[in-house]
Amino acid sequence: MARLKLSKQALTQEQERLKLYQRLLPSLDLKRRQLSVAVRRAETELALLEAERAALTERIGEELPMLAHPDFNLGGLVVLERVETGEENVVGVRLPVFRGTRYRVADYSRLATPAWVDVLVARLKQALELEVRRDIAARRLSILRHQLRRVTQRVNLFEKVLIPTARNNIKRIRLHLDEADRTAVVISKLAKRKQQAARGGMA
């Protein structure tokens, strides 16, 4: 750590630093509060999607009890082919946004298969979409939490380190400069007395 210079120039630099920190802190703190709100919203969104997924699983169990049979094979009936996502800016943070999904449904004869297979296809699509939306919501929450941590660290750095250090440095420099001024005044008075005494001795 660089040694603090106890000069007028150093005092000006520290005062400028303090002004800059005090100007930046409110906007950082505002961003921290906005991110906290965004995190709570993302947590709620994720919890709702998880509840929706649990409700859908229960509904499928009630509608299609035959799926519990060990010989029943769903492999390849509905395949998720593509997930379409976008991006949005929330409090200066880029977050993924769900746009849609595309599926491939295996060919099956509607005449040769039971009617409930159509219901199964619809529910599988819903389940896959919910899973994708849940994963995106979890990613959004993770990104927001990370950003909140970073901004909170910066706010703490400003509040607990940079601003108190700048104030302390300003105080130390001022004390030193005041002491130097007093010393200069005393030396000046002593020099004046010596000159007067020397003149008086010559008379």
Please name the CATH topology. Helix Hairpins
What oligomeric arrangement do these chains adopt?
single chain
Radius of gyration: 36 Å
Characterize the overall form: rod-shaped
Number of strands: 2
CATH architecture: Orthogonal Bundle
Instruction: Output mean pLDDT.
Output: 88
Give helix % range: over 70%
- What structural class should be given to the helix and strand makeup? alpha+beta
Catalogue the unreliable spans.
none
Number of helices: 2
Q: How many domain modules?
A: 1
- Major sheet attributes: 2 strands, antiparallel
List the helices and strands and how they pair.
Blueprint: H1 8-63, E1 78-90, E2 93-105, H2 116-202
Antiparallel strand pairs: 1-2
Descriptive keywords:
single chain; Helix Hairpins; 203 residues
Question: How would you sum up this structure, described in words?
Answer:
With 203 residues, this protein is α+β, with helices and mostly antiparallel strands. It has a single domain, classed as Helix Hairpins. It is 70% helix and 13% strand. It has helices at 8-63, 116-202, and strands at 78-90, 93-105. Strands 1-2 form a two-stranded antiparallel sheet. Strand 1 and strand 2 form a beta hairpin. Helix 1 runs antiparallel to helix 2. The two termini are 58 Å apart. The mean pLDDT is 88.
Q: Summed up, what is this model?
A:
With 203 residues, the protein is an alpha+beta fold. 70% of the residues lie in helices and 13% in strands.
